[in-house]
Amino acid sequence: MATSFDDPRAIVQKVFGNLVPGGWVEYQEWAPYGLVGADDSIDERLRHSAMMRFQESFAEGASRLGRDVKGVPRLKVWLTEAGFIDVVEKLVLCPINPWPLNPEDRVLGKYAQRSAWDAMEAATLKVFPHAGMTAEQTKELLGEARKELMDENWRAYYPM
Predict the structure, then answer these.
(1) How far, in Å, CA of 69 to CA of 158, rounded?
(2) What is the mean pLDDT of the chain?
(3) Residue 142 in contact with residue 54, Cβ under 8 Å?
(4) In this predicted structure, what is the pLDDT of residue 107?
(5) What keywords sit in the KW lines (predicted)?
(6) Whose CB among 48, 50, 102, 116 lies 3.0–4.6 Å from 144's, allowing a Cys bridge?
(7) By residue range, what is the domain housing residue 61?
């Protein structure tokens, strides 16, 4: 939902207005503008990474298109304001690639990596020109970010 609507807050209100009493809604959003390192050394690397520059460019271009990708943390507030009660928010950290040793987390990381790989190119086509990037700059940043995404030494998570 983060990038799908001009006004996601209004969508939340419409959802509430279209539910029968006792109805409910569930959102599962990823934050397309931040990564969390598995440890402090990764956090420092992330600050200067192509992945982070990619996400910052995406957020800037989306903003110029009228999309607030940084609105995800306000979702709980919007749900409460719309009239939902007993709103539960749960933060889940999803590995960006199959770096974890735990087999279940490795599978999750593999799916996240593939999903991100595909989404990254789609994002560049529409959004990056609005961030002021040329086709050459976009192609270069996409290549650098994808290289980092494939590197299992990048032990990071997407907050969801």
Answers:
(1) 14
(2) 89
(3) yes
(4) 97
(5) Methyltransferase, Transferase
(6) 50
(7) 8-18+33-92+119-152+155-159
Q: Identify the CA nearest to 50 among candidates 125, 114, 139.
A: 139
Distance CA(129)–CA(90), nearest Å, equals 34
Structural domains in the chain (count): 1
Contact 70, 33 (CB under 8 A): yes
Whether residue 124 is predicted with pLDDT greater than 90 in this model: the reply is no
* Residue at 137: amino acid letter: Q
- pLDDT digits over 26-85, tens only? 988 876 667 888 887 777 788 889 999 998 999 899 889 888 887 777 889 999 999 999
Judging by DSSP bridges, how do beta strands 156-159 and 93-95 pair with one another? Answer: antiparallel
42 domain-assigned:
yes
Residue 128 lies in a domain: yes
Residue written as token pair 């928010």: 89
CA dihedral 121, 108, 29, 143 (to 10 degrees): -20
Is 3 inside a domain boundary? no
* Among the listed residues 126, 106, 109, the one whose alpha carbon sits nearest the alpha carbon of residue 66: 126
User: Beta 156-159 vs 36-37: how paired, if at all?
Assistant: antiparallel
